[in-house]
Here is the input.
Amino acid sequence: MNYDHDLEDRMAAEHQNRQRQTADLDYIRRYYALESRRGIRVTIGGRVRNHGREGAIVDTSGQYLMLLLDGDEQPVRRHVTSNMEYETVAGWVAATPVPDLYAGAAR
Here is the structure.
């Protein structure tokens, strides 16, 4: 029986990649609460607009998203709420930053 170590390595790397993406998306969902605040579910493969250009979420990078904008060959790193719109069942919805609870506080 011939054992494919390369296949095993690729499978292990893909598993680690999925775990990283899951952890990043969990953080993004908890911190920005876009689903409860705006009806936006951030997922790999989700359609987005950034500065009016459409594309898809192809990966995560910590608290950032990697987008492959239509017509581009390389993904770009973008912030979850900065000039971002997400396609939802209700249509395109603009993301908003997390409210700053201390912005109006007297200093």
Remarks:
- The radius of gyration is 17 Å.
- The mean pLDDT is 92.
- The first helix runs from residue 5 to 32.
- Strands lie at 47-50, 53-61, 64-69, 76-79, 84-88, 91-94.
